[in-house]
């Protein structure tokens, strides 16, 4: 706030009108276009209480239409109007001048009225000075810090985070993605630091005015959007890892974490080379830097040539990070490097098509990781994980289309959600599977070549892919990608396909409608039509490799309504069919009761492993969802789930646990929890024993996803006190506590640490909690710190949980702002902590909002555990009233609030409709 007052004051002094500009549209005018930026920024770290920067930007501006003003973006910058210069480079450097300026704070516009009209065809050089505080808000050009253990001193660094619309916080600019231009960046700083930017260093010269300061000028960049500009001043060290004949590649971190860069330094160049082959285009820049930032709001950011990461997303320690941590690092690196083509080389015209960036990077990252680590089977894991997420999120009426209109800048950040990322990725995978490898790859390469260094929208992509699909005969000439894919990207939700078989004639009738969790929504609100590629197999055939559609569900070209669909040639009454091979398309399937029973028979007594592992996961997910909303009864669903006592693969168990967790969140607060708990113990015990419990058998496990299975099963087994899980976990923890140097030696198996810590804190003493909190403060590894944060919330002591909630939002206590939500979520998902967390959130909502402002995305994540565990009508009404009376402290969270309230409502409906039925089904299975 201090800075804002300073700016208002300085603008008033300099004669700037702080009023609504006469131009009040949310997008920039199109009369001008930047051709090149020359940006000089001087950063001061001397006084920790006043870290600041000052600079000058020179913008070459082409005039496309006659105009008398220049409108660009500037926010929270001190700009001295008297020092702004404007000259016409087209006519003997003729001076123009700025007669007055005004500010539109709603759209962050800085408007300069010119003395003389700017004429179309001319090119002007605009020079503007600016200054501001190096802010603490994790956006724009901001500060971060770390403590050096040897000296216990704070070391400061600066970094940028401009996506989606924060370059305007760092320098005046045309801050929209379609105003691409080359940048020449020059950084000024004390010579003991290092400067980094998108491009390699061109030259370093002494600062002519400040002793021991230097100017570091970087090479001119390729044309790029403002949100991809990046620079940093730091005292980091780096690890080089260039592959032969490839781009210069470096991985940067604070000096006391550089030993955690080895894995990222190995993965990055490999993935970059794979993408060069996949896209048929060389990486366009001469170097690639990736850097781990201690304070960072996003997971990572794809700035061209200087990718920034949270420490947990880039750093990996073989002695502290689990396999899941390692896979996350590989996946995030692959995601950010995919953006160098999808997003950076070809950029969406406007944030409506954000999914072209994020959906593509998410999908292509799974191809990249699969290429360098096929033994992980991560493509299957990633695909199923995305589908499970979207089946949940997109079944809410309050969801939104993948491609959504953005009409206010504040709406952009809400689009960085699971719909843009996971649903975007899922529909691309669907398209890849129905087009085939050759046509898909050819279409993508054509699209990237056609729009390199330019901007595109989704219709441009559809054109390139349709052309390739027809050329390679992947689609009939009468089909085009736009008609198919618009039904997935412009429409909210996904379909449920009801399949009714006539067993005597071998025919099935298919219908589709939108699947919704809210069962009170009227049938006429479930309308919609999706173009659905239909792949399927039969019990006799069991061909799960072929994902090519055998038929399509189509939509009428005029009315948009579903065209009737019948499939013939199906087997008789003793054979099942399974639709959606390898879950290649985003839809739920409901069969008639006979088909479900045939499937249950195979799963329970037959050769169930011949059904593809993803389809086994699908059957569990579909059966439990359909039972949740009443399209199926729980007796069938729970009989199907019961086969899991035979299952030894990771994906079906993941699907089951995701669904059982939602039921558990409600049932554990009811009198019949005892039956549900006993049922889960009975279900989990065989797989727990098969995996040798919590014994450290990891070195002998060959299949990497079995490591993930053992980790997940161990977690559930200890929660439900299966077999010896709790005492074994406590024994591990005791042996760690007995170590002379517990920060250097930890006998707990790395992949079981989350389970061991949480179990020991849940069943442990105050001293156990304090021991772990000390380990958190002493740890130098971000992944370990996150594991500990999540485990500290497992306590059953009310006073400890209340103390922990207060610690989470106190910046002096050593939990960084971006990590506070892990602590809150851990408390809130704890059965005792839930009520404490809800009360804490309601009582402190103003303070929490101020803590996160202006980046409210993390605050929205505090709502997830609150919504998933609310199931009483009275609690739902109370939360609705709370929202209505606290709108100001929930600003920017409108989408998250709406989805949270809808989730609560669906829980209320489930409890009223299904609770007794589930209890009966569980009791019946216990009696078997």
Automatic annotation (TrEMBL):
Positions with a binding annotation for Zn(2+): 335, 339, 358
Residue ranges occupied by any Peptidase M1 membrane alanine aminopeptidase domain in the UniProt entry: 263-488
Pfam families recorded: ERAP1_C, Peptidase_M1, Peptidase_M1_N
Cofactor: Zn(2+)
Catalytic activity: Release of an N-terminal amino acid, Xaa-|-Yaa- from a peptide, amide or arylamide. Xaa is preferably Ala, but may be most amino acids including Pro (slow action). When a terminal hydrophobic residue is followed by a prolyl residue, the two may be released as an intact Xaa-Pro dipeptide
Gene Ontology CC: one annotated term: side of membrane
Keywords: Aminopeptidase, Cell membrane, Disulfide bond, Glycoprotein, GPI-anchor, Hydrolase, Lipoprotein, Membrane, Metal-binding, Metalloprotease, Protease, Signal, Transmembrane, Transmembrane helix, Zinc
Lineage: superkingdom: Eukaryota
Protein EC: 3.4.11.-
One GO BP: proteolysis
Site (Transition state stabilizer): 421
Active site: 336 (proton acceptor)
Signal sequence annotation: 1-19
Topology term for the membrane: Lipid-anchor; GPI-anchor; Single-pass membrane protein
Family: Belongs to the peptidase M1 family.
Entry protein name: Aminopeptidase
Gene name of the record: Dgri\GH14003
């Amino acid at each position: 706030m201090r800075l804002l007052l300073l700016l208002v004051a300085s603008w008033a002094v300099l004669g700037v009108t702080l009023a609504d500009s006469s131009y009040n549209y949310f997008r920039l005018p199109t009369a001008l276009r930047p051709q090149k930026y020359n940006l000089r920024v001087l950063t001061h770290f001397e006084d920790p209480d006043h870290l600041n920067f000052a600079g000058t930007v020179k913008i070459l501006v082409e005039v496309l239409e006659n105009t008398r003003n220049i409108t660009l973006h500037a926010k929270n910058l001190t700009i001295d109007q008297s020092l702004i210069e404007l000259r016409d480079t087209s006519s003997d450097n003729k001076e123009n001048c700025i007669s007055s300026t005004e500010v539109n704070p709603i759209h962050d516009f800085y408007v300069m009225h010119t003395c003389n009209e700017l004429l179309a065809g001319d090119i002007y050089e605009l020079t503007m000075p600016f200054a501001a505080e190096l802010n603490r808000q994790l956006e724009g050009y901001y500060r971060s810090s770390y403590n050096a253990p040897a000296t216990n001193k704070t070391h400061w660094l600066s970094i940028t985070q401009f996506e989606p619309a924060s370059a305007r916080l760092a320098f005046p600019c045309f801050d929209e993605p379609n105003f691409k231009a080359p940048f020449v960046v020059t950084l000024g700083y004390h010579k003991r630091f290092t400067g980094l930017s998108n491009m390699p260093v061109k030259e370093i010269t002494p600062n002519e005015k400040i002793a021991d300061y230097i100017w570091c000028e970087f090479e001119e960049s390729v044309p790029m959007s403002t949100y991809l500009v990046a620079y940093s001043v730091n005292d980091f060290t780096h690890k080089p890892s260039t592959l032969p004949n490839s781009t210069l590649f470096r991985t940067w971190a604070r000096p006391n974490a550089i030993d955690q860069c080895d894995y990222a330094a190995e993965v990055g160049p490999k993935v970059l080379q794979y993408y060069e082959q996949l896209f048929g285009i060389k990486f366009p820049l001469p170097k690639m830097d990736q850097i781990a930032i201690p304070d960072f709001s996003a997971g990572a950011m794809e700035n061209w040539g200087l990718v920034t990461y949270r420490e947990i997303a880039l750093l990996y320690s073989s002695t502290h990070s689990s396999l899941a941590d390692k896979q996350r690092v590989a996946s995030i690196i692959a995601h950010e490097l995919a953006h160098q083509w999808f997003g950076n080389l070809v950029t969406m015209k406007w944030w409506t098509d954000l999914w072209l960036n994020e959906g593509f990077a998410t999908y292509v990252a799974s191809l990249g990781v699969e290429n360098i680590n096929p033994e992980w089977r991560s493509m299957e894991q990633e695909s199923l994980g995305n589908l499970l997420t979207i089946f949940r999120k997109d079944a809410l009426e309050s969801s939104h289309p993948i491609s959504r209109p953005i009409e206010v800048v504040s709406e952009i950040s809400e689009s960085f959600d699971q719909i843009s990322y996971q649903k975007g990725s899922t529909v691309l995978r669907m398209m890849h599977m129905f087009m085939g490898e050759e046509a898909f790859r050819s279409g993508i390469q054509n699209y990237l070549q056609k729009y390199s260094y330019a901007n595109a929208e989704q219709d441009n992509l559809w054109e390139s892919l349709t052309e390739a699909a027809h050329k390679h005969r992947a689609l009939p000439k009468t089909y085009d990608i736009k008609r198919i894919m618009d039904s997935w990207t412009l429409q909210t939700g996904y379909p449920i396909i009801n399949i009714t078989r006539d067993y005597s004639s071998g025919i099935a009738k298919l219908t589709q409608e939108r699947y919704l969790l809210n069962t009170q929504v009227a049938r006429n609100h479930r309308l919609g039509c999706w173009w659905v590629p239909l792949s399927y197999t039969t019990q006799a055939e069991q061909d799960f490799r072929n994902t090519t559609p055998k038929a399509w569900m189509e939509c009428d070209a005029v009315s948009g309504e579903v065209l009737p669909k019948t499939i013939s040639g199906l087997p008789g009454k003793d054979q099942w069919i399974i639709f959606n091979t390898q879950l290649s398309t985003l839809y739920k399937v409901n069969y008639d009761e006979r088909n479900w029973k045939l499937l249950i028979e195979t799963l329970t007594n037959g050769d169930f492993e011949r059904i593809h592992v993803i389809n086994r996961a699908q059957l569990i997910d579909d059966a439990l969802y359909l039972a949740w909303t009443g399209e199926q009864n729980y007796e069938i669903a729970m009989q199907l789930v019961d086969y899991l006592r035979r299952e030894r693969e990771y994906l079906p168990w993941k699907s089951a646990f995701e669904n059982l967790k939602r039921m558990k969140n409600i049932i554990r607060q009811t009198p019949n929890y005892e039956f549900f708990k006993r049922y889960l113990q009975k279900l989990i015990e065989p797989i727990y024993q098969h995996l040798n419990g919590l014994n450290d058998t990891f070195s002998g496990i060959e299949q990497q996803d079995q490591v993930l299975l053992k980790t997940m099963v161990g977690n559930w087994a200890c929660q439900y006190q299966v077999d010896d899980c709790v005492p074994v976990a406590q024994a591990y923890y005791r042996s760690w506590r007995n170590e002379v140097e517990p920060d250097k030696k930890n006998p707990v198996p790395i992949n079981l640490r989350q389970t061991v810590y949480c179990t020991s804190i849940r069943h442990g003493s105050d001293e156990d909690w304090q021991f772990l909190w000390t380990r958190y403060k002493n740890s130098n590894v971000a992944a370990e710190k996150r594991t500990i944060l999540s485990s500290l919330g497992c306590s059953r002591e009310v006073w400890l949980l209340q103390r922990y909630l207060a610690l989470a939002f106190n910046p002096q206590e050593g939990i960084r702002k971006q990590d506070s939500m892990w602590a809150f979520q851990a408390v809130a998902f704890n059965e005792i902590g839930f009520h404490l967390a809800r009360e804490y959130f309601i009582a402190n909502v103003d303070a929490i909002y101020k803590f996160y402002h202006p980046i409210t995305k993390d605050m929205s994540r505090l709502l997830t555990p609150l919504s998933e565990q609310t199931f009483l009508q009275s609690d739902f009404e109370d939360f609705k009233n709370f929202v209505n009376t606290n709108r100001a402290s929930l600003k920017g969270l409108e989408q998250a609030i709406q989805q949270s309230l809808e989730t609560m409502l669906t829980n209320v409906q489930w409890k009223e409709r299904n609770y007794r039925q589930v209890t009966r089904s569980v009791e019946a299975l216990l009696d078997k």
